[in-house]
Amino acid sequence: MTDTRGQQPSYEAYNGPLPGERAGERQQGPYHPPQAYGAGGQGAATKAGGGTQGGQNGAEATRKPRTGARTTPRTRKARLRVAKADPWSVMKVSFLLSIALGVCTVVAASVLWMVMDAMGVFSTVGGTISEATGSNESNGFDLQSFLSLPRVLMFTSVISVIDVVLMTALATLGAFIYNLSAGFVGGVELTLAEDE
Asked: What is the pLDDT of residues 127-149, one digit of tens each?
């Protein structure tokens, strides 16, 4: 068989328009794809000498966040377990808290006594008790001298000191008991959450 088409042109020497291109539309220089976020990326690419890295940096510089997207706050959660309570630290904290509670008790008792004395409660109740317990030979029980302010403060202070000792001892003993029980069952589990 013989080839009847004749001599074909060389493809390497072809300089005409490519398929899908019109004549005269060939681009001179490197191809730059269109930027999605404005012309700032192309300007940066042209200033940088036509490189693609400059175009990417310019597009990132002019990129704006989307305003239509709604962000929901994430909540981080951590599940922790109290495995051991240090008895020494529990004793120190309970001692300080019990001292503060004792001071509050003394102050509250003195304020309450002053308010009741200003309202005349001791004189009224003391007069009634002295009339009920009195006789011809004695005047009866004197409530006002028995419930004087120094005596009330001394009694309240003794109660506060006893409370300090008992609360400190019970809290320390409770820490030891908790450590023993946590060794068997694993301790108390806590779930901590943090809002961002």
From this structure: 777 777 766 666 666 677 778 88
